[in-house]
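Protein entry
_____________
===
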Amino acid sequence: MLKMMTATLDELITIQHQLIRYAERKQTVLIEHKVDELTELVKEETRLIRRLGQLEDERERLVIEVLEEHPGLSFSQFTEQLSDETAKLALQDQLTTLKQLLMELQAKNRQNEKLVQDSVDFISGMIGHITTPAKQPYNYQPQSSTKHTQSTNRGFFDTKA
């Protein structure tokens, strides 16, 4: 069972490394505005996340089995009491690596989320700028030109050709 646990953790670590590479690539693609490439990356990332979910379910199942065999112990306590020092260190190292990778991936995803939000804000601002009606001029205009100001009070897309 310990071998299955280490194999599952190794595979989880591999997928986390791949997800980090995808997050780095997504950052570049977002900056360069390559939408088609972003779509492909998201598809691949979705496939990896599905596999990650399967592995996480497997890991949880293995942890539950360990805890059922050793009642009253947490998984950390079980790891600490392993008699095989090599297996104990390897398992602890895997868990530490996995935690570090998760934190790194979260940081990269937060950066990418910020880039996406900035892009959305920029696009919203541009759409707002284009579609809002023009303001009345600040200089003095005679009363007879009030009909003219109504026609200039239209948005960019509201004007007639």
